[in-house]
Every structure is written in C-alpha cells, then in structure tokens.
Amino acid sequence: MLRHITLCGLLIVAPILAGTKRLPGPATSGNDIVDVYATVITDKEEVTKLLGMDPGMSLIVVDVKFAPKADNKLRLDRDDFTLLSAKDGQRSQPLEPGQIAGKGAIVVSSVGVRGSGGTMGDSGGPVWNRVPGTGPFGRPQGATGVGNSSTVTEAKATVSNTTDQKPNPLLDALKAKLLPQKEETNDAVSGLLYFLLDGKTPKTKDLSLIYKSPQGRLIVDFK
Fold it and tell me: What is the per-residue burial (b if ≥16 Cβ within 10 Å, else e) of 203-221?
C-alpha cells in the first residue's frame, strides 16, 4: 500500500516539474567599489509571468542587483547599463516603461543598410538611437539599434501618436518593477531592466550585460 501511494505521488508531481522552466542563477561581476548581480529572462512566457501580463513584444528582461561595497556612495543610472549580443553585435540600452507601454511608446521597424557592420565592442557598429525627449538626469530618451556583416539591419525607431488616456496596467507593472535610479547610494538596490533587440531573440549564452562603473566597465556574461 505504501509503495502504491508513493508511486501515485510521483506520477502527480512529475508533470508539474516537467512544466516548470528553471531560470539560470544570477551571474555576477565586480570591482573594488561595486558588485553587479544579474539574471536574464528571454522566454516570453517567463517575462509574462514576471510582469503579470503579456508586454506585446519580445522584451528581454534583466533582473539586476546593484551592490556598492563598504561605504562607497555611488550614483545608479539605468543608462550606464548596456545589453550586448555576441551573436550579431547588437547592443541596446534599457527602455523606459513609457517607451514600451506609454503614450510615447516606440515603434521599431527594420531597414536594410549597406555598409560594414559592427561587432560586440566595435564602436563602428550601429546602436539603438534615442528617440526625441528628455531622459533621466537630463539625458535623451530612446531605444536601440543593431548591426552585423556587410549588410546591416538598422532599427528605425519612431514614436506612437496614440492619444488613449485610459489606465494602462502594463505601464504600471513596468514602473513598479523597474530598477530605480539613485543620485547617491551605498545600499543594495534591485529591480528590472527592459531591453529590445531586432530579430530573433538571442540565446542566453550569447548575451552580456555591461555596466559602466566609476572604475571602468564590468561585464556580466550569461553563460
């Protein structure tokens, strides 16, 4: 009887475990003044679960923990983070919630451009360009751009002209989970960063998060 009950229990639990997608643990990088921990979520179903609703686009979400060391007081600015794809050299800075779900949400279209493409770390490659507006700390707001090989796919970003003033639950969810900005902090701060790359979403192993710290770049590889 005990053996029968145990077997039945395993048969019930097995499908549950089979349907659970295990996310990789956080990757990390650090120097003398700060550690950065990050977990990347590329699966659309997992992103939907995390936000509580479908964002309507293939967002790449990075869960970040920013941890200053000792008594170091550092500014935390989302624009100091960049997502890189080793697969095709694309790079993207974080999107603001309003660019994803707000009145000024970005609309991205791909345009073929002749020329030499860039690779990861090659400043000659195109990057996402900021759309008009003012961002955090007086910086312009905007999205990203892409490039590889001799024929480059350039992402053209425009701003949606929607005038819908109805409450937007997705916008609220994005804002609530967003990595906050800090003028100066020595406390650990956690939150989400939202990225968008053109084309098929790269595999986790092809992605890296770059943080521009006061002591130089930190590279968090998701391998």
Answer: ebebbbbbbebeeeebebe
Interval 108-161: pLDDT, tens: 444 444 444 443 344 333 344 333 333 333 343 444 443 344 443 444 444 444
Q: How is residue 122 written in tokens?
A: 């090659």
d(CA 157, CA 193): 19
The domain ranges of the chain are 41-208
Distance CA 69, CA 184 (A): 13
Place of tokens 């609309």: 107
State the Cα–Cα distance between residues 190 and 201, nearest whole angstrom: 24
The per-residue pLDDT for range 71-80, each reduced to its tens digit, is 899 999 999 9
Within 42-132, strands assigned E span: 60-68, 74-76, 81-85, 91-92, 106-114
Between CA 163 and CA 3 the distance in angstroms is 64
Residue count of the chain: 223
Please, which residues have CB within 8 angstroms of residue 200's CB and are 6 or more apart in sequence? none
CA 203 to chain centre: 13
pTM: predicted TM-score of the whole model, two decimal places: 0.68
Q: How far apart are the first and last CA of the chain?
A: 46
